[in-house]
Write a structure and sequence with these properties.
By secondary structure, this protein is an alpha/beta fold. It has a domain at about 35-105 and about 135-190: Rossmann fold, CATH 3.40.50. The protein has helices at about 1-20, 40-60, 85-100, 115-130; strands at about 35, 70-80, 105, 140-155, 155-170, 175-190, 190-195. The strands form 2 sheets. It has a 5-stranded mixed beta sheet with strand order 3-2-4-5-6, with helices on one face. Strands 1-7 form a two-stranded antiparallel sheet. Helix 2 (about 40-60) packs parallel to helix 3 (about 85-100). The longest helix has 18 residues, at about 40-60. The protein is elongated, with a radius of gyration of 24 Å. The model has no long low-confidence stretch (mean pLDDT about 85).
Length: about 200
């Protein structure tokens, strides 16, 4: 009994010393956990920031006949083995686009909670005005994309490249008005904290 008690008294402080207490860190910052096999928050932040910087600086949205440009955010397909909510990327993009003053996001299409609310409001307005169907919205541009991956391994070292692609299409001409690709490559044998 004494040996068991002594062993427990020795092990408890060792186990407590090995654990890391929870604490707040900067989202996507240098202390974030980096994993090779998954898309991490810092990957999403890097990709969305790089793509939006290109889109806003190029000025295509400013060429729309209405200002701010009426933008429809379409499908962004996650074609990777990493399962994460695409909304983590699209909501950040929407925030920057709308707050830049260059785009107003059309929310009467799609399947997000905002889209459903906007669609219901449009139907209600049409009903109250005695219209058979809601007035159609005529967006200037649509933003679509895809996220893909290429994975390789040499010995116990893994490498993954996640490619984020966005395309802005002019809905009046059907022509691609802007496109951007951002690659995020990670390599290692196990998950790590920091870059």
């Amino acid at each position: 009994m004494l040996r068991t008690t002594t062993a427990i008294c020795i092990l408890v402080p060792i186990l407590c010393a090995c654990s890391t207490p929870a604490r707040p860190i900067e989202t996507g910052g240098i202390e974030s956990i980096t994993s090779v096999d998954d898309v991490d928050m810092q990957d999403i932040l890097k990709a969305s920031s790089g793509m939006l910087e290109s889109l806003l600086s190029q000025g295509t949205l400013k060429s729309a006949p209405r200002q701010p440009a009426q933008l429809l955010i379409g499908s962004i397909v996650n074609d990777t083995s990493s399962r994460f909510d695409i909304g983590e990327m699209t909501y950040r993009m929407r925030e920057q686009l709308v707050n830049s003053g260059q785009a107003a996001v059309v929310t009467t299409y799609g399947t997000t909670p905002e889209d459903a609310t906007a669609q219901d409001a449009l139907k209600r307005k049409a009903f109250l005005e005695g219209q058979a169907a809601p007035a159609s919205v005529d967006p200037d541009f649509s933003l679509t994309g895809k996220i893909t991956q290429v994975k390789r391994q040499a010995g116990n070292v893994k490498q993954a490249t996640y490619t984020f692609r966005l395309t802005l299409t002019n809905l009046r001409s059907g022509i691609e008005a802007w496109t951007k690709v951002v690659d995020v490559t990670k390599q290692g044998s196990k998950n790590a904290i920091g870059f």
